[in-house]
């Protein structure tokens, strides 16, 4: 039931309806305001869009919902909370935080409106309306918004006191928790840490209700000990703290939290939490990236108007906010969606909530129109100062409907957990590719061709291939740090402070020259398990990547996220001197050079066991190629999923394993640990063996992917496998014996991985007859934006976007949009460059 916002207009953050937040206290919506809910589809529309819906569908009965904000008579309420004159709050909206509850109250209004004459019937009206209409209207008014479950703020209302709080046993083991410098006692994580209230253990969490991630040591400790309650460090204030009950499997209230914390030497009255979740005295002595990236401690001037609209954080949705701000700063996306707004709306389907282009146009209009980014009136500022309540809150938009659509059917993006902005960017590009708008695809501005040169080290022969890509991934050349002596001294001091349980020393960040990262990108890399067609055997091989074309907009990702030797994800906290102007013309691909000899075009042999039992278990290998696992994990896929992909594709390399990931990533057990089946048993849930035949007689996706990776079309691969009873070796022979079938199919299939997932080795080159859609040109660029990440991994932390507009830098930190004073260009994660015209 979509009765909180219009399907075509982005709601203001407080009233969650398609109209401007009142510009002065006491202003009512005009008589044509409010929201119209179709009594047939239960979709909501603003006044300017209801006529379009009526003309398109013929639906004539709508429920008109409207909220009035009214100034109280002085002294009428004695400072109580806003009084609601109606028995129910029809609109299911949060209160306007900018309006004082002592001075204003709400009144909600509901009517039935009959089109086309706009005949109105006030509700409730039992006398004039049939019983069925009355029942339907009451049900609609009392229904909860579908977005309430996405709003973490609503969870606070549901917290219940834990059954363990009153009788909690606390061990008298002498443990005292220091005021800062916390670290998981089982790993190196320093964020998302939880203090067990029974024995004082400090351990990292995993997918708790606040959306951050960890390695699950707090849960493991509970399973070993049965100690039920833990409090999140960094959330403790004089007003309370975030408490989780492992036994009850939900966040809870602890009425005795002050007593329980005092047992470990923590005085709640002395604890203050910062806006980003870190305690004040944690931030100050550590020049942390939280301070630098958010430009904390600097007075920033708010920006208002078109293109300076903030976005509400829906609960770890800052990755989405940052990416969308960058996307809609690009003219091609502005023209495609906002420029075609009326056409997109006019031709939208009957349910616009399920239309990508409608939701993109709606969001783009909200960001660029300026309707939701207006400076406060001077009278308001004077009144706030007089009341000593001057806490200016910028308006903005709430992307609830957009997030709900764009993340549906995606396990990670549909959750309230923190995500990788790079993965979301590619997910968005995938949706743009699949939902064309107009004659040109705006995502073409990011597309470029990569030429990969692979050389057999023994025969010296080479192979050139091309693939489509959207992001240039730059490795971090840690060995090139210019302040190595300072880093060594800092690490020694940090370890000493950790051993003495003191606050850590002031952070020293590795300084990496950008030229070193660019050099590392251009250097040859070893190819694991390289099979040389010249030798007809495995051999050593090296691969070099160059640009076969340069994109109009170059997106550069710094590969800060990696894995330690213990497979624990970590982030490289480095400073890179990213240039304002970038010239990569020297990375232009040259193609086959004189004197080079190409490798023969021969596919490697694929051994399929004859034993049917072996086929059913996909000729399980005795080991897992960890290098292939690492390549996949660095792309952002869950570690266990990467292990399964390499295992079930028989260690045939990262490319084939990537195909397996694409085929299985939507399955519920995708990221579950690998379960190695025994001979005669069955494979783990959701995984088909090479020789297994599905109930629908479709060939296993792994076998199809292997054939596609050899350059054949998907339709031909499926036909060959069906013709040979899913025998891979015979299917390859069948393809070679039927070359006429390949010629008949004029349009090779384009794998979804070209759109959804970026890899350095595995995005297929587009092979359509008209060629790939690229906007080639010179490789000279200028920086116009960057997205920065704060935190220790992609599973936690916060994202902020900086964009250069009208000659100056602007920081977009969710709702806060301000002129940037110190843009931290050296700490970015994703950089956006535009081509400099010749």
UniProtKB/TrEMBL annotation:
GO molecular function: BAT3 complex binding; cysteine-type deubiquitinase activity; cysteine-type endopeptidase activity; K48-linked deubiquitinase activity; proteasome binding; protein-folding chaperone binding; ubiquitin binding; ubiquitin protein ligase binding
Residue ranges the record marks as coiled coil: none
Database matches in SMART domains: UBA (SM00165), ZnF_UBP (SM00290)
Domain UBP-type: 160-268
Every USP domain range: 309-836
E.C. number(s) listed in UniProt: 3.4.19.12
Keyword Disulfide bond: no
Entry-linked CDD domains: Peptidase_C19B, UBA1_UBP13, UBA2_UBP5
Catalytic activity from the UniProt record: Thiol-dependent hydrolysis of ester, thioester, amide, peptide and isopeptide bonds formed by the C-terminal Gly of ubiquitin (a 76-residue protein attached to proteins as an intracellular targeting signal)
Boundaries of every UBA domain copy: 623-664, 698-738
Active site positions: 318 (nucleophile), 798 (proton acceptor)
GO BP terms in the entry: autophagy; cell population proliferation; maintenance of unfolded protein; positive regulation of ERAD pathway; protein K29-linked deubiquitination; protein K6-linked deubiquitination; protein K63-linked deubiquitination; protein stabilization
Keywords: Autophagy, Hydrolase, Metal-binding, Protease, Repeat, Thiol protease, Ubl conjugation pathway, Zinc, Zinc-finger
Family: Belongs to the peptidase C19 family.
Protein name: Ubiquitin carboxyl-terminal hydrolase
């Amino acid at each position: 039931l979509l009765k909180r916002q219009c399907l075509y207009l982005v709601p203001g953050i407080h009233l969650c309806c398609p109209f401007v937040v009142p510009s002065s206290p006491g202003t009512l919506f005009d008589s044509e305001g409010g929201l119209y809910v179709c009594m047939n589809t239960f979709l909501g529309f603003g006044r300017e869009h209801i006529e379009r819906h009526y003309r398109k569908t013929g639906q004539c009965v709508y429920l008109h919902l409207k909220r009035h904000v009214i100034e109280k008579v002085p002294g009428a309420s004695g400072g109580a909370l806003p009084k609601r004159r109606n028995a129910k709050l029809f609109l299911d909206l949060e209160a306007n935080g900018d309006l004082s509850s002592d001075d204003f109250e709400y009144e909600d209004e509901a009517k039935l409106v009959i089109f086309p004459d706009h005949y109105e019937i006030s509700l409730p009206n039992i006398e004039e309306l049939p019983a069925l209409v009355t029942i339907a209207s009451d049900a609609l008014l009392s229904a909860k918004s579908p977005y309430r479950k996405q709003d973490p703020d609503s969870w606070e209302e549901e917290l219940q006191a834990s059954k363990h709080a009153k009788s909690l046993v606390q061990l008298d083991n002498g443990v005292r928790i220091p005021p800062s410098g916390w670290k998981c006692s089982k790993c190196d994580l320093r964020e998302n840490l939880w203090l067990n209230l029974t024995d004082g253990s400090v351990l990292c969490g995993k997918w708790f209700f606040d959306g951050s991630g960890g390695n699950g040591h707090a849960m493991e400790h509970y399973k070993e000990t049965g100690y039920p309650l833990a409090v999140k460090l960094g959330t403790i204030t004089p007003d309370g703290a975030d408490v989780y009950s492992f036994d009850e499997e939900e966040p809870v209230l602890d009425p005795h939290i002050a007593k329980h914390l005092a047992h470990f030497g923590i005085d709640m009255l002395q604890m203050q939490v910062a806006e980003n979740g870190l305690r004040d005295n944690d931030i100050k002595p550590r020049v942390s990236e939280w301070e630098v990236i958010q430009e904390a401690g600097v007075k920033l001037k708010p920006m208002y108007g078109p293109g300076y609209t903030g976005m509400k954080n829906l609960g770890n949705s800052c990755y989405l906010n940052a990416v969308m701000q960058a996307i809609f700063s690009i003219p091609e996306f502005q023209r495609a969606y906002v420029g075609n707004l009326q056409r997109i709306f006019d031709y939208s389907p009957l349910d616009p909530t399920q239309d990508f282009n409608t939701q993109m146009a709606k969001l783009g209009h909200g960001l660029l129109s300026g309707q939701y980014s207006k400076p406060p009136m001077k009278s308001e500022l004077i009144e706030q100062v007089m009341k000593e309540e001057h806490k200016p809150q910028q308006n903005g938009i709430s992307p609830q409907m957009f997030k709900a659509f764009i993340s549906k059917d995606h396990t990670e993006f549909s959750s309230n957990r923190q995500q990788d902005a790079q993965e979301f960017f590619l997910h968005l590009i995938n949706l743009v590719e699949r939902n064309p708008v107009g004659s040109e695809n705006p995502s073409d501005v990011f597309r470029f061709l990569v030429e990969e040169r692979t050389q057999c080290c023994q025969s010296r022969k080479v192979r050139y291939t091309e693939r489509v890509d959207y992001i240039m991934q730059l490795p971090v050349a840690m060995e090139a740090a210019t302040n190595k002596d300072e880093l060594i001294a800092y690490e020694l001091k940090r370890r000493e402070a950790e051993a003495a349980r003191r606050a850590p020393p002031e952070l020293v960040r590795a300084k990496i020259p950008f030229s070193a990262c660019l050099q590392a990108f251009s250097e040859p890399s070893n190819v694991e398990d390289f099979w040389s067609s010249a030798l007809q055997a495995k051999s050593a091989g090296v691969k070099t990547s160059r640009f076969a074309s340069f994109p109009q907009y170059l997106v550069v990702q710094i590969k800060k996220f990696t894995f330690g030797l213990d497979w624990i994800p970590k982030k490289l906290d480095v400073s890179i001197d990213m240039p304002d102007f970038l010239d990569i013309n020297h990375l232009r691909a040259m193609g086959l050079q004189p004197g080079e000899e190409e490798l023969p075009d021969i596919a490697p042999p694929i051994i399929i066991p004859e034993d049917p039992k072996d086929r059913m278990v996909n000729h399980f290998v005795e080991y897992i190629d960890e290098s292939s696992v690492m390549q996949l994990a660095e792309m952002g896929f869950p570690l266990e999923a990467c292990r399964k992909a390499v295992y079930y594709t028989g260690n045939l390399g990262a490319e084939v394993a990537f195909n397996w990931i694409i085929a299985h990533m939507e399955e519920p057990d995708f990221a579950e640990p690998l379960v190695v089946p025994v001979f005669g048993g069955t494979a783990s849930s959701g995984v088909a063996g090479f020789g297994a035949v599905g109930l629908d007689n479709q060939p296993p996706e792994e076998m199809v992917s292997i054939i596609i990776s050899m350059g054949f079309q998907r339709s031909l691969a499926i036909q060959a496998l069906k013709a040979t009873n899913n025998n891979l070796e015979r299917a390859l022979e069948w393809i070679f014996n039927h070359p006429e079938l390949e010629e008949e199919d004029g349009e090779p299939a384009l794998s979804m991985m070209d759109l959804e997932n970026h890899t350095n080795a595995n995005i297929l080159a587009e092979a359509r007859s008209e060629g790939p859609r690229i906007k080639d040109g010179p490789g000279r660029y200028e920086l116009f934006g960057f997205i920065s990440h704060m935190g220790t991994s992609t599973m936690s932390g916060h994202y902020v976007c900086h964009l250069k507009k009208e000659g100056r830098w602007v920081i977009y930190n969710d709702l806060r949009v301000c002129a940037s004073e110190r843009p931290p260009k050296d700490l970015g994660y994703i950089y956006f460059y535009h081509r400099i015209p010749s």
